[in-house]
Amino acid sequence: QVQLQESGPGLVKPSGTLSLTCAVSGASISNSNWWSWVRQPPGKGLEWIGEIYHSGSTNYNPSLKSRVTISVDESKNQFSLKLSSVTAADTAVYYCARWVSNGYYTWGQGTLVTVSS
Amino acid sequence: EIVLTQSPGTLSLSPGERATLFCRASQSVYTTYLAWYQQKPGQAPRLLIYGVSSRATGIPDRFSGSGSGTDFTLTISRLEPEDFAVYYCQQYASSPTTFGQGTKLEIK
Asked: pLDDT by residue (tens digit) across A12-30?
């Protein structure tokens, strides 16, 4: 059974960089899947941030593209998110998820990141 | 990007009743690349339906999806207590993939 686990600081200062890692277990990140980040501001809907393939190919949401970097570490079976120049609007629960053909079948439990001084 | 608008915002029904949730796209989703997710408080979303009408593994047959073009529907034939949650549609025909704002299904 594939499992995803997000980790990283729960509090980031304004103008700083948000950094999260998603550890993958039960499957190799080198499988033919896209690995994604999705966020959800408190009480609001879902926003796709971007995705990465094990080869390193990436796709980003144009609304965040200038601030986002997603990378993969095959040796550790994990992938990571960096979001720079954060503001309070970036406060959200951040999920990592696995895309399989036609949907996000597997999600992490989510981690709340608050942007505040 | 394709904007998805879900209606109603909140739906109040009783267990055993039929629920119909709607998702309208700002432009045609030319393929069948439309999915539905269920999210309960404090939990990650769960995939229910993909490809407009195919149930994901383990999803009960009381859940069904339909539609084409710009109008899509999720139907729950007979509500069980565990079905009360927030439901999101997602299109993945056009990048970036986008989600609707959600419909909250609450107990009447």
From this structure: 999 999 999 999 999 999 8
